[in-house]
Amino acid sequence: MSDGYHEPVLLVECIEALDIDPAGIYVDLTFGGGGHSRAILEKLDEKGRLFGFDQDENAVSNTIDDARFSLMPANFRFFGRFLRFLELEKVDGILADLGVSSHQIDVPERGFSYRFDGPLDMRMNNELKVDARQVLMEKDAFGLQRIFGRYGEIRNSRTLAEWIVKNRKPHLLNSSGDLVKLVEPIIRGDRKRYLSQLFQALRIEVNQEMDALEEMLSQIEAHLKPGGRAVIMSYHSLEDRMVKNLFRAGNVKGELNKNAFGVVQTPFKIISKKPIIPSAEEIRRNPRSRSAKLRIAERI
Q: What's the half-sphere exposure (Cβ side, CA atoms, 13 Å) at 253?
């Protein structure tokens, strides 16, 4: 299934994992092109409800004309606040696909990909004050090294950061093409992989994705009914670690809370002992799915 905006990854697996109650209330925290949401709606009856969240204003054009569906134009870190406002304290299932949509990547004006020469922006929400160019021009070498090493897992992150600080000039660093040209002399290993890691690191920093993810994950326990499912798909090792920690320990830090008998106390029952990954056929059809890891847990 493809919706022209983003091909939903592990679509069948996600819907099965939610174990949908036709009359239940569900939340799609990463609406995007609406592929997962449409599949959820197919499982709901007239009493069921679905709420979608997306901070990208372009996602509004994909909204679904269905009385059972409502789209919230907001970052998923605020989903708990919206549910309380709607007097829906707890829901039957929560889905999140943490990948960047194909639409965002493939629009040059957004600056998400090294494959297109566009502005060094990378903001998922245009109301954010800091874009990728400002990060590159204003951060010192230590700050850039932290971003490249932690979010991009770039091996020569220190060399890269020092090179950028040494050679950056306002009039020579305005586009994604300028950035590629700037770092070309110190790329190590596979060029495509290196540039993908660099652009990924900048995107995560610009959008404060890890902070938003931690805030969102920390709200799941409070807003999921007993027996309800949390279905989270990640694409980055840091994301996956936070999701794994939440389901195993009840918090994103992975800090274990044990009772007097040494038994770990957690509000979740892990449904998928190991993450579910795309098949070879899905990866062939949609190469961007190759790093996806799907984890499932049920609220106790």
A: 3
For strands 91-97 and 224-234, give the pairing: parallel
Structural domains of the chain ordered from first start? 11-102+209-299 (3.40.50.150), 129-206 (1.10.150.170)
**Global pTM value:** 0.92
Query: Which residues neighbour 169 within 8 Å (Cβ) at sequence distance 6 or greater?
Result: none
Q: Residue 57 has which token pair?
A: 């204003």
pLDDT tens track for 164-220: 999 999 999 999 999 999 999 999 999 999 999 999 999 999 999 999 999 999 999
Distance from C-alpha of 14 to C-alpha of 281, rounded to nearest angstrom: 17
* 169 burial level (CB within 10 Å; 0-12, 13-18, 19+): exposed
What one-character DSSP code corresponds to residue 56?
A: -
Q: How many CB atoms lie within 10 A of CB 176?
A: 26
Helix (H) or strand (E) segment spanning residue 136? helix 132-138
